[in-house]
Each structure stands twice: as structure tokens, then as C-alpha cells.
Amino acid sequence: MEKIKLYQEYVRDVIRRHSHHPAYGDIEVQQVFDTQNNHYQLVHAGWHKKEREYGCVIHMDIKDGKIWIQHDGTEVGVANELAGLGVPKQDIILAYHPPYKRQYSGFGVG
Questions:
Q1: What is the torsional sign of CA 32, 16, 3, 84?
Q2: Range scoring the smallest mean pLDDT among 20-24, 31-35, 37-41, 57-61
Q3: 53-88 burial code (b ≥16 CB/10 A, e <16)
Q4: What secondary structure does DSSP assign to 18-85, as a single string?
Q5: How far apart are the first and last CA of the chain?
């Protein structure tokens, strides 16, 4: 259980760091932390000129004692950030890759 709490803090920390990147127009940067179900997102929502803007920048889940990266719209790569914080690579799953390709990622397979 202690590992899960540590992973929750790491995931929130990564999302918080990315939430400081400026958005344009009237865009709200939302940090979504569902700690009960272990779902975490960074979302941009709002308006730019006359166009509606909405997008998920980061989506991570914690399940089965591992961090599953569902979506990563960052340049650095949140998997690398998590590894830098001390999360073992086998506990980081690049869920946006098909299962048969994960073995070549250098991270966990699921």
C-alpha cells in the first residue's frame, strides 16, 4: 500500500509540473486527481477566439501496483520523468503502445 501512495504522489507531482505551461486564449488548465479510483489527468478546456478547445495532455492510471500511461502529450515524456523520480521502469506501462510492442519500449509490459 505504501508503494501506491508514493506512486500517487509522483503522478500528481508530474501533472502539477506540466500544468504551469501556459495555455493560450481563454483556456483553463485542469488537474484531475481521482485518488479513490487512481485516475489522473491534465486537461485543457476553454475557448480560443471563436473555437472550442479541449484536450487531454496527460492521462495516467495506477492499477495492479503499476503506473499506466494512457496518454502522453508532452515533449519530455512522463515515463522518463517518473523513472527519474525513482519509479522502476518495469512499473511504468506505456499503455498507448499495443501490448505486443511494449516489450521493446524499455518499460514494463503490463
A1: positive
A2: 20-24
A3: beebbbbbbbeeebbbbbbbebeeebbebbbeeebe
A4: HTTS---SEEEEEEEEETTTTEEEEEEEEEETTEEEEEEEEEEEEETTEEEEEEE--SS-HHHHHHHH
A5: 19
Q: Within 10 A of 12 (CB to CB), how many other CB atoms are there? A: 15
Q: What angle do CA 4, 80, 63 make, to 5 degrees?
A: 30
Q: Is the dihedral of CA 85, 110, 42, 2 positive or negative?
A: negative
Cell of 17: 509540473
Residue pointed to by grid coordinates 501533472: 15
The domains of the chain, with CATH numbers, are 2-104 (3.30.310.110)
Nearest to 35 by CA among 57, 4, 66, 64: 4
For residue 94, the surrounding DSSP H or E stretch is strand 92-94
Binning pLDDT at 50, 70 and 90, where does residue 22 land? low
